[in-house]
Design a protein that fits this description.
2 domains, 5 strands, three-stranded antiparallel sheet, 2 helices, 24% helix, two-stranded antiparallel ribbon, alpha+beta
Length: 117
Amino acid sequence: MIRPTFNVVVNKDSARRALRVSVERGYGTTPYEARLTATFTFGDIPEAGDRLAVLIDPADPRHVEPIPDEPIERAAPLPEDLDADVAAQLRKFATMRDRGDLTDAEFTTAKKRLLDP
């Protein structure tokens, strides 16, 4: 989970944002909260519920930084009765759109095909 705490426009293309993030390491460990401050391109600014790959400082696990060029996995509100495979595919298309691999029109077309077979 990501909660924005601070946002500053750096230039016409990007903003610097401080976020409180819930860090999930896996391996059966308990998630913990950390603060991340980074510059994001408009359109790639993380929002609440998004998932973001981060680097963790082994000397200070509360110090995290986004992994360069890793796409943000967007948290899309999905209907509760949606098939899990369809939901995963929608998230994949949203990530591809956010990364620039798909245009908004291509994303909309792919989404429509998935939801209206």
